Amino acid sequence: MDPKTMRLKIADLGLARAFTLPMKKYNHEILTLWYRAQKFFLVPLITLQLLICGLLAAFLLSL
Length: 63
Hints:
Blueprint: E1 7-9, E2 18-20, H1 28-32, H2 39-62
Antiparallel strand pairs: 1-2
Protein name: Protein kinase domain-containing protein
InterPro entries: Kinase-like_dom_sf (IPR011009)
Transmembrane segments: 40-61
């Protein structure tokens, strides 16, 4: 909370927006502009897991 401007910032993995008091009314179309898919954060983790599985399979086949 910034006491000078009375702004409160709420963070929720990319879904956050700044607002002031009193709050403005937003419809569902404006709120969807702020949306970012959660899969965006999971792609590097899944890729790394697949790479590790592939390396392990290659190692076991070479024995």
